Structure formats: structure tokens, C-alpha cells
Amino acid sequence: MKKNFFGKLFRFALVLSLILVCIYMFLNSAFFSVDKITYTGLNRLKEAEMKQLCKFTTGTNIFRLDSEFYAKDYAVHPMIKEVSIIKHIPRHIEVNITERVAWAVMPYKSKFLLIDDEGVCIDQAVQLEQLEYPIITLDKMPENVYLGQPVNSQGVTVVKKVWDQLNDAAKNNSSDFHYITEKEELIIYTTRGTEVRFGNLDRLDEKAAFLTQLIKIEDDMQNEGREVLQYIDLRFKGQPVIKVQE
After folding, report:
1. What are 57-96's pLDDT values in tens digits?
2. 104-244, which class in CATH?
3. In the chain, where are the structural domains located?
């Protein structure tokens, strides 16, 4: 009985081993060698440019390809925000690119920097034909700014959070978002020249709501022929401090 049992166990182990060997050989065979690499999400970037960054080629076994490792090769490009490498079994690799998109403008020397929502400079322009982006100014700018370089990401993040809370009317009524680095505070200038001392992100909803009310305040003062506002201070709790130009 024991001899028969061990004989069956041996045969089972042998068959299982042969199956595993066959599976291993099949998974490492040419059947799973990558023969197609496609790029998706490209807009401004060119496929030929992406191929120069690619460190893997056709013929690579799809199971041996480390997606996270090779995704880092694309991340060095200043216009690329995120990359995901997707394996389509058996032989297709898709490289999905998320490009950086211009979100705001920073005046810089005699030019304009186009930055994304993380503060990364993605382009420069001598003039802007259509001003469709928020304008951000900083109290301190780097001596030189290059493509792919973050420009005060902290300040840009603050402006982005405020911008996302504003309705269209408040956005259209805002001409400049000025970030003071040392104080970590924001000053917003309206299109009529009112200085709004916004401060930090404390009470964000409350402050954003007041900016919408400010449009009506400015309209009423203009219609009544009254002096325009000099500044409004929202930095402290309670009623805003309003200063009219003398």
C-alpha cells in the first residue's frame, strides 16, 4: 500500500513538474515577446520624441518588463506630467502620456512664463494674443527659469486652490494673484484696481464667497459715483476691513 501510494505521489509530482516547466517555457517563449508599442495621450508631444526616451524595445518579454522602472525614463521630459505603461497580453505595450497643460501666466523680465497647475514652466512667450489664464506674480523670482523648472510651486498651489473656489464672475473680475513668499500670503487685485488682502488659505470658502460680493460692491460704488476702493482686508476673522481711496 505504502509503495503504491509513494509511486502515485511520485508520478503526480513528476507530471506537475512537467506542467510547470511547460508553463514556464511558454511564458518565456517568443509568443509573449512585445511586437507592438503604442503611445496614447499625445497632443503637443510627438511619438518620435517619445521613442527616443524609450529604453525597452520590441522583442522584450512582456512579463519581464518592469512598468514602473521604465515609466521613470519618460518622467525626465519637462512636458510630461504622468506616465503609465499598460501591458496588453500577449504582445502589446501601451504608453499612456499625460502632458503638462498651461494653466497660468507669470510675467518674467520681458517675457511671459506659461506654467501648469504645479508651477512647472512649460513654455515662454514674448506676447500673449489671448489672455485666457490667471496671472500670477511673485515677490521673488529666480534669476533664470528653464523649461521643466518649477517656479514657486507653493505659491502656485495656493493660487490654484483659491481659483478653484471662485465662480466665473469672480475669476473674470480678478486681474492679478500676487503671492508673498515669506509671509505665505496672497493678494488679489481686481480689474478695477481694488487690492484684496486675501492672506493664507484659512476660511477659504468664506473669503471666496466675499470676492463674489465684491463685484456688486464695486458696481454699486461706480454707479453712485463714489470713490473706488483702495483695499479690503480678509486676513482676520470677523467683518472685512474696507478702505476707500481718499
Report:
1. 888 888 888 888 888 888 888 889 999 999 999 999 999 9
2. alpha beta
3. 29-99, 104-244
